[in-house]
Every structure is written in C-alpha cells, then in structure tokens.
Specification:
The protein is mostly helical and about 350 residues long. The chain is built from twelve helices and four strands. A four-stranded mixed sheet has the order 2-1-3-4. It is elongated, with a radius of gyration of 26 Å. It starts with a helix and ends in a 5-residue tail after the last helix.
Amino acid sequence: MLKRIYAIFQARNREFLRDRGTLAWNLILPVALMFGLSFAFSNERDAYTVGVFQETTELNTSDHAFLKTSYINFVAYDDFEVAMRKVSRHRLDLLVEFGDTPRYWINPESPKGYFAEIALLHSYATNVAAIDKQQISGASVGYADWLLPGILGMNMMFSCLFGVGYVVVRYRKNGFLKRLRATPLTSFEFISAQIASRMVLILLITSFIYTGTHLLLDTRMEGNYFTLLLIAVVGAISLVSMGLVVSARVTSEELAGGLLNLINWPMMMLSGVWFSLEGAPDAVRTAASIFPLTHVLSSARAVMLDGATLADVAPSLLALSAMSVVFLAIGAKTFRWGQ
C-alpha cells in the first residue's frame, strides 16, 4: 500500500514542479502582495488626514499648535473646491483654515472626522480637566506584521483547493482516473497521496515565502516556530480535504472552478485575510468560524504577534482536525473514478 501511495505522491510532485508557470505564480504572487501592500500602507501611523486651506501648498507647523498633533497627516490645499470635495467624500477627515478668523469644515457622517474635530478643539482649549494619566510601553504591530499570516493563508487556501480539487476533476475528465482504477490502487490510497503531495509542496513554498519576507521586512515573531508549523500542517490538511469534497464527484472543470470560487471568495473575505473581524457583528464572526482559514489565521496571528502557546491555539487545532475528518469522510464516501 505504501509503495502505491508513494508512486502517486511522487508523480503528482513531478507534475507540479514541471508546471513552471503555476510554481512561479505560487511564489511570486504572495511576495509581490506583501511588499506592495507594505509599501502602500507604510504611512499607517497617520490615522487621520486633515486638509489645511491656505494660499501656498507648503505647511509650516509653527503656524498653529494643531499642526503638531501626532498621528494626523496634514495636507495643504490652495484650491477650496477640491478640498471641499474631498471632505464630502470622506477622503479628508477635516478641512481647517487658520487666519484672522479660523474656521473648519467637517462631514457629520464621517466617524474619523468627529475625532479629528475633537483634536482641533482641544488645541484651542485653555483648561483641561484633571485626569490621572498612565502609560504603557510596547512596540507597535505594523501592517506588514498583521498582513503576513493573511497572505500566506490565502496562498495556502488557493493552492490547496485548486491544487487538489481542480486537478482531480481534470484527471477524471481526461480518463486518467479510469486507468488508475484498473490498478490495485484504492480510492483511500489515491486521496492520501494527493493530500501528502499537496501538503509537502505547500509547506515548502509557504516556508520559503515566510522566511524571505520575515528576513527582509523584519516581521514580528513572538511565539514558537514549531507551533506555527503545526498550525500550517493541520490547516493544510483541512483545506486539502475541503478541496477533495468538491472534486469527489464533479466531472466538469468549469463547474469545479465555479464551486471552488464559491468557497474561496467568502472564505477570503470573512476569514480575516485583509481586515480584522474584531468589530464585526456576532453573526458575521459566527459565520466566519465555519471556514478552516479563519482558524488558521487567528491561531497563526496569535502565535506570531502575541506569543500564544500550543495550549492557547489548541481549540483552533481541534476545530481544524474535526473539519478534516468530516471532509475526508465525505470525500472518500462520495469519490468516484469515472464520469
């Protein structure tokens, strides 16, 4: 049995490595996204953007105390209509004009504008209510730190689902599975070889991408590397198993692609690849918990950013293991060789 599994495992690995286009895509896309988004959001510490209407486009921070406020990006405008349009469209949180009669413009529907207004009015205040101030130190978590698990998880998701689900359907459509059925190979052995092959490939690719981006961007890693590797292994098994459910009986590549996209996009949007779900409604977070990628990303970020231990992420690992068992059982039960 092990020889048959190894033969299919080896054949699938060679097929993937010979497909230079797919291999390059799996390596280049996540790296390009990481560096591109990290550069685009490198100024993320400026949480607010305030326009300053004046005759010139050069700002002098000594003109007013408000211009020295931290975490606000001040932009000078000499065209009033352009600046007002940006305020109305929430691209500017506030527009202020200093002079003999200082005034400001704000969109009442802008949440960030509300807090920018408070900062502006505070700069004019002469008395501040007494309050006990306490400070805590700690390095900030940059966008690249938070984004890296999401990019790696997204790449893993696409590779696992399409790398198994779409390929198995292609095998079935061109008659390759029928030829395999004439051999002593069982469906369990075939599925096991596909899972093992995809796991090894995706873990190697993910490790390579993580190492490169971690060294070049100096991303945070507070936890244990073994725990992070275990999360990747269990998550990859769960995602591959989900792909096998789709490919178990489907005979059309078009249908398989549609079904996989029907799974991929909601999972990518709701699992926290691009943005956090901490402030989302309970119904959204409950719906997100049914996706394997949600548990992969939440546990990976807990390890990388907060130093979570194996015990801390054990509930997510158990959830992923349970999903894998269910998906594998469904896939093995419904699997068919021919069309």
